[in-house]
Each structure stands twice: as structure tokens, then as C-alpha cells.
Amino acid sequence: MTAAPRIETERLVLRPYRLSDWERFAAFYESDASRYVGGPLPRPRSWNGFAADVGSWDLFSFGWWSVEETAIGACVGQVGLSHPPHFPEQEVGWTIFPEFQRRGFGAEAARAARRFAYGELGWRTAVSYIDRDNAASIALARRLGCTEDPRAARFDPEDMVFRHPAPQALQ
Questions:
Q1: Can you name the residues that pair with 159 across neighbouring β-strands?
Q2: pLDDT band at residue 1, thresholds of 50, 70 and 90?
Q3: Among candidates 139, 133, 88, 89, which has minimal Cα distance to 110?
Q4: Which of 29, 102, 126, 163 has its CA 20 to 30 A from that of 142?
């Protein structure tokens, strides 16, 4: 089995999921706060997503990390790299739980995940699929240097697609 590598940033640790993370994920996905990422979901459906995030490391050698704030040792959300068969392109995605938003954790975690994708995996491009009503994620994508790509293919025709800067543009 291929586990998510541990990545440390200034304030965060991107680490493999732990079973102890499950309750926080389930609570988020049962709440209205998950409306931009397919929720609210009943526990069995959010468990399937949680397990798929873990399993993607074994299937693809990339996937999702639990994001832990080092100062308090708490899971504050998730960040990941995905390209399931139904996604037209490789994606950098993020979810920061509501009580931890507006602290820059999403940008810090997404930059670390993108560095891994471009460096370790050799990705030459990446997108983020974002619900058009998710103003916070749209703003974060723009902070990350992403630009809207209205011609990009998408799984959900309602999503906006934000293209990340190419690796050479970030050096």
C-alpha cells in the first residue's frame, strides 16, 4: 500500500488520513457547509469518499491528505490531488473546515500539494473545479495565481475551472 507522504509547511502538516479524522470529516459532510463539495451527505456516503481518498494513493500514487495545524495538532481540513476516471484533468482541491477558515490554511496547504504534483509527480498542468457559488474557493484559486479557463472540459458542467500556473511560472 502506498501511503500519502508527510509534508510539512510553516504552520501545517499534510499527512495520511487517520481513522480518528473520520468524525470531523463526517460532521463537515453532514452539514450545509459541504454544499459546494457535493454535500450534505449521509455518513455512509461521506465514508465512501473518505475511503476513496485514502485508496487513491494506492491506485494512482497521489490523492488527498489530512491537513493538521501543528500549533494545536488538530485536523483542520483536507487538500489533495485527484484525477479519477470521470475528471478530464488533474485537479488540486481543498476543503478547510469552517471553524478554521480565513487563516490562510487553504492557500498554504494547496501550494504544498501543488509543489508535490509538479515536483514529485511531474505534472505539467493542474486545474481546480469550483462550484460557481463558492466565492471563498474562487478567491483562493485567484490567490494561488489560477486563472479561469472557460473552455476547459469539466465533469460537472456547472463548475468553473481554474487553471494553475505552469510549474516554470512558479519558479
A1: 131
A2: low
A3: 139
A4: 29
Q: Which DSSP category does 33 fall into? A: G
Give the type of residue at 166: A
Cell of 135: 466565492
Q: Give per-residue pLDDT as tens, 112-131.
A: 999 999 999 999 999 999 99
Reported as a single tens digit per residue, the pLDDT across 52-98 is 999 999 999 999 999 999 999 999 999 999 999 999 999 999 999 99
Cα 106 to chain center, whole Å?
9
Residue 14 identity = L
Q: What backbone phi and psi angles, to 5 degrees, belong to 120?
A: -75, -35
- Dihedrals φ, ψ of 83, to 5°? -160, 60
CB within 8 Å of 148: residues ≥ 6 apart: 160, 161, 162, 163
Phi, psi of 60 (to 5 degrees): -120, -10
Q: Which three cell numbers, joined as nine digits, stand for 140?
A: 483562493
What are the grid coordinates assigned to 8, written together? Answer: 510539512
Is residue 14 classed as helix, strand or coil in its secondary structure?
strand
pLDDT digits (tens, 9 = 90+) for 95-111: 999 999 999 999 999 99
- Cα separation, 64 vs 51, in Å, equals 10
